[in-house]
Design a protein that fits this description.
9 helices, about 350 residues, 10-stranded mixed sheet, Aminopeptidase
Length: about 350
């Protein structure tokens, strides 16, 4: 019987059926192109319409929080190539005081069905338990897996057999045309201004405050802010619509155009995303007005459709607003959890 020993610990995992694979830790930036290949081919096989790039992956991994790439990362190799990887991180959910130990894994489709997914999940859970053992947190603790699509039948079965259950659902919604954008004026006293560099911290802070009462909120870090400033896809201030009430940010739609994704899927889609209204200005039609402005901006930039993501149980009634603007759900994903014991 063989065993996988974690590259940084004495954690062991029975992998007697996995003689084909070798496992190792993350080895720095040279791994990024190999990981990108796994991500891209894995998502394509699972029909995820994402378009990750080396630039976006590098930016993301340069600003991780509560994840030690030397210890919380596992890479699987076979036939001289990286065929899968996974990582663990943790955060506190502010509204519940729950501590969440998140994990994610990707595998090339041609190497699936050989026990690799089970091995990675077992390693990731063991690593999370080892991290949790160093913490003094006394409240509830959970393992968590994100973005599980109905199309990922094998992944869903793997998680459910391991004791996970879906606890929250999210839609991707699409407006298939940018014709007939409704007239939705801003509430009196508010105005949209072009974004200046000196506005960025205020916009960030207003977004954090607006999302504080949303499900799963966790207080962001300075690394999160720096990652946002250098995000190669979503940081497009020229597309954003920020509403001001004097010197205060009242609300925003930080839309963007994912050019690489459009090229890959042969479409002209803009994203009406990062929709936030601060509490004093809610229930006044501000979100609808800013979304309409964003849709017009996307159309002016040559887009022919728009998309967004939404929590189906959003506490501010966002789903109804989006449906009123002719967005329709095209994909559902779930968050899966199980207690960490």
């Amino acid at each position: 019987m063989s065993a996988l020993t974690a590259p940084h610990d004495t954690l062991t995992l029975d992998i007697s059926t996995l003689a084909t694979f070798t496992f190792r830790p993350f080895q720095g930036q040279a791994d990024f192109p190999r990981l990108l290949n796994v991500i891209q081919k894995s998502k394509a096989a699972d029909q995820f319409e994402d378009a990750d790039t080396l630039e976006s992956l590098t930016n993301f991994y340069s600003h991780l929080t509560n994840c030690d790439l030397n210890r919380d990362f596992i890479i699987a190799e076979a036939a001289g190539q990286v065929v899968a990887y996974g990582r663990v991180w943790w955060f506190d959910e502010d509204a519940t005081a729950d501590r969440i130990y998140g994990h994610v894994a990707f595998a090339l489709p041609e190497w699936r069905g050989q026990g690799l997914g089970r091995a990675l999940l077992s390693w990731l859970e063991d690593r999370a338990r080892a991290v949790a053992a160093t913490h003094t947190h006394t409240g509830p603790r959970f393992f968590q897996a994100w973005g599980v699509s109905d199309k990922e039948i094998a992944r869903r079965k793997l998680l459910e057999r391991a004791g996970y259950a879906p606890i929250r659902y999210f839609y991707t919604m699409v407006r298939p045309t940018l014709d007939d954008i409704p007239d939705a004026p801003l509430p009196p006293g508010l105005e949209v201004r072009p974004v200046q560099t000196e506005h960025l911290r205020a916009i960030w802070d207003a977004s954090v405050e607006a999302f504080r009462d949303h499900w799963g909120f966790s207080e962001p870090t300075e690394d999160d802010y720096q990652s946002w400033l250098t995000d190669p896809v979503e940081f497009q201030p020229e597309v954003w619509k920020i509403a001001w009430d004097g010197e205060q940010v009242a609300g925003m739609v930080r839309g963007y155009i994912h050019h690489e994704q459009n090229k890959q899927f042969n479409r002209l889609r803009g994203w009406t995303e990062n929709i936030a209204v601060c509490r004093p200005w809610r229930k006044r039609g501000l979100a609808r007005a800013l979304m309409a402005e964003n849709l017009r901006e996307l159309k002016a930039r040559g887009m022919t459709e728009a998309a967004l993501g939404v929590d189906t149980e959003n506490p501010t009634g966002a789903l109804r607003v989006y449906e009123s603007l002719s967005f329709r759900a095209v994909e559902q994903r779930a968050v899966y959890r199980k207690p960490l014991t």
